[in-house]
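hiii, so i know i said id send this last week but things got crazy w the move. better late than never?? heres the sequnce for the chain we talked about at the cafe, plus the structure i predicted for it. fair warning i was half asleep when i ran it
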Amino acid sequence: MSELNVTVIGAGLAGCEAAWQLAQRGIHVTLREMKPHKMTPAHHSEGFAELVCSNSLRSDQLENAVGLLKEELRRCGCLILRCADQTRVEAGGALAVDREGFSRAVTQAIQSHPNITVVEGEVTQIPEGEVVVASGPLTSDPLSQAISQLFPDSRYLNFFDAAAPIVTFESVDMDSAWFASRYDRGTADYINCPMSQEEYLAFWRALCSAEEAEVHGFEDANVFEGCMPVEVMARRGEQTLCFGPLKPRGLADPRTGKEPYAVVQLRRDNAQGTLYNLVGFQTHLKWGEQKRVFSMIPALRNAEYVRYGVMHRNTYLDSPRLLDRYYRVKGQERICFAGQITGVEGYVESTASGFLAGVELAHRLLGKEAVDFPRETAIGALALYVSNETVGDFQPMNVNFGIMPPLGYRVKGKRNKNAELSRRSLELVDALRETL
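okay and structure toks below
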């Protein structure tokens, strides 16, 4: 067993990835996880790397920044992407996984690694020695208080996040729906539930007036745009949903040959195709209200819900003031953070932060030079954005090509330009792989 030791707090995607990268380099890891002794409102299983909000890891295309980020991680030996690829389900051009199978694969890999010791139970103080805090956006109150004591002159930032309902496939009225992907791209993996103008307007009015569950301190202005409750979006205007999650563009109804007024899409949630989640329907309506209002969607009039939408608190740091490009605390480099608590938004982005934090910490402990992913790579661009002191009003950020330097030469067409950005990035990543 290695004499070098690191404590990783949290067995979500970021924590598991950080632990794996450390262990693969001969560092002994004590992985602390409070489940199953203490669960959060958003978690339902005892497994590691539980996906809460969706089973989709978003686009797998290199013309999309998150697709590039996934490919970079694959090439760098990322555990999370390996398990995701092993448990993927069809979802057009996206990478979606069987959530239970994915969690099992990650859990088995972590628990069987000879350099990782899993210790169950809640952590309420920052341990001594080298630490990676990957406690997630639902960090418990005692640990949150301990973290806040590290930064007496700074502050935490909070926002609210929401998870969408899941229904059984057999309860969806397929006489009122059809399988397709938008513009027929990829395979026909989404169930499309059309609504006429009259049906949509009745649904919209009911949604706007539906009763919400109590969430202390919740205000529309504080909702993160990337995971906005559907009822909050609806209140922004009659047509807002039609230009958002209910957008009918590219979804011609095979019965009429025309695009409906609005379309609700369902995405497969498990490999067997027995469960589907309502795309874009994150919500914090009361459960009875969810069933009442969502049953106004014709294809879901008799839907069976295996999980209703829930609303929960997300907590993240003012990272540009607190963290460096390796997700280390400035002035207290023995402590790293990883995952959504750093202000990266999304499962893949959380994984990337855990990957980089683990790799850099291992290199430092082994006396090796730092691995500096440049801003031209998605991994590097994300870390450099999160640690950029010039960012004023810091908000959670998905990876995007806008935080990467431009090419310096003209490429015609957005997709072609993005593909060229990805080509440049992957060349740099391949050159770095020897140092990993």
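btw Confidence is low (pLDDT under 50) at residues 216-221. thought thatd interest u
miss u guys!!
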